[in-house]
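Q: What does the assembly look like in three dimensions?
Context provided by user:
Components: two
Sequences:
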Amino acid sequence: MADNGDNDSQHRVNEGDYVVLKRGDIYKAVQIQKKKKTVFEKQWFFLDNAVGELYGTTFEVVTGGTLQPRKPKHVESSADAKEAGTDNRNILDDGKSQKLTRDDIETLKEQGLKGQEIVQQLIENSTTFRDKTEFAQEKYIKKKKKKYENSVMVLRPSCRVLAMMYHGREPGKICHLRYDTLALMLTLGNIHAGSKVLVFETCAGLVLGAVMERMGGYGSVVQMYPGGGPVRAGVESFGFPSHFHDTLHEFPICHVNALLAGTLDTEAKNIDAGVRLLVIASRFHPCPVLLGLIKFLAPSRPFVVYSQYKEPLIECYTKLREQGGAVSLRLTDSWIRHYQVLPNRTHPMLLMSGGGGYLLSGTTVATDTLKMGSTRGEEPAAKRLKLTETTDG
Amino acid sequence: MSFVEYSEFIQEGDVAIIFLGHDSMMPVKVQQGAQTQTRYGVIRHSKDLIGQRFGTKVTCSKGGWVYVLHPTPELWTLNLPHRTQILYTTDIANITMMLELKPGSVVCESGTGSGSLSHAILRTIAPTGHLHTVEFHQQRAEKAAEEFREHRVGHLVTVRNQDVCKEGFGVTGVADAVFLDIPSPWEAVRHAKNAMKRQGGRVCSFSPCIEQVQKTVEALADEGFQEISTLEVLLRVHDVRSITLPLPDFGSDQPLETPTDTPVPSNASVLCKTTTPPRDMAGHTGYLTFATKPSV
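A: Here is the predicted structure of the complete assembly.
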């Protein structure tokens, strides 16, 4: 089933699309609107020229603030015998090796020189460049390129990209949930097409969006929300097709007790048929949230609770153990390390993430009244919510 | 039952996971008249399993009990018969997110191995995606195909018994994502590129050794891949414990009544609810290298 050229449209940027701009490790979610100035990494430009181009295209920001698709980079041939030194024993770091002044560089920028050309000028005007080792020269060029290049990549939004963006830009908005922890939540939670998921999150809608992406428009999601109304800014950034929103429902937590007691009528339709999967990631104390919402789960269903801190999850673990109804309880956190991979220069990055939050995961099981003569621990009879079961997961 | 859809009641032919307690589980193929031995006694499939709800408690012949769970790819990973070293859930979760897998994704994978990652991929790409998985060992390829059928996911996957480094994945221009877990992934990079859609896609290579990573990164760069990034992830488990810490007795600040009086030591202690790390933990599984194939 080869793809044909004319079926490209779904891979091309359209006006009104939600996209993510990327430069290096910096991401920003924006909406494509013609003739609207966008700011990204201290640069102002218009996104008009992105419309019609394929997602994943890299653009140069040229003077005037317009985007120009970048020609495929020709791989720098390392066969060029560059003049280089063997070590840095004679190189003095006195801050005087670069002959161009700040003003000179500004002039070059105003003249419309491209980033690559500015870097070339810096190399030519550096007295120590040719004494550096080849590795040091490469590192120098990479550093200058990062500073002076004007490229912007336009990416299709995805959980991967948005999770990295939020964690890098505004971790406070997502309770410092790191992207690998989010990845674990989605997998341990068995989020898949056709699921009926209950989500309680205060992560600007990132977790909700991630759940919806993994459901692909199939099944249903009920977003429990505290306060006045559900926050969904993050969900918008995913740019889901409109029919995805048909699967999204909301429910205010102030009605949870009434629903459990059976004294609530109107909104009950939303979450009556056995909710299958539970995802919690909020700034609220996870214990009451989990103990309250777990009552909606059928037996043999996974649940996953995120907390920025460990102790509240210890409490959850303890209470669940006492109450019963869950097995395979695990309190975990994820450790992640990035690497620089270059010939003879491979090593872990110098800075790594200190922490990404904690997860409590488990699987529900049926609870029943204590049988006479049972030798295994104590299982207080838990209230079982009467569910109208349907067989579609 | 299927690995991509929940069902409520256990039926003949299902795979169920018997939970025995404390991370002790075993998979079971449910069959009329069959029996399964456990340390708590015998489970009779016809009486104890078929027609019961997933998640219920089953009492075994000796009086002890177990839980019967609905299979998931995560439970399968912990219980499947190993034919090769497998990928575990932590790596699988990150691969899934970094490759941007979702319903409808078309994925190419090699080697299939024991099918641990395969099941997780199938769960994520169902119901409209497809997995093309390549395994050069004939028996492993056959075993995997058999398992996919038994687990009711056969319609979502094509198993090919060939060498991906020489013959590729068997499809071109269709994949949103490619995954490599083979000894020499750099030899398959060009095939990965060909298997992927013209408009771009994501690739991942998993290698235990850093030398393999270096060669693969070089091959990816040579083939024009972008956003090349290598990382590793590990899971730290925290064992919740109640611990009792005795308090030191520094004695009374009043002088003793008589020199021969020995103060009665107090046995005061404090109860703490905390976690401890396990004695050992998984320190390394493999390096994950991701990259994006740019649109042509």
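Follow-up: Chain B touches chain A through 78 residues (CB under 8 Å).
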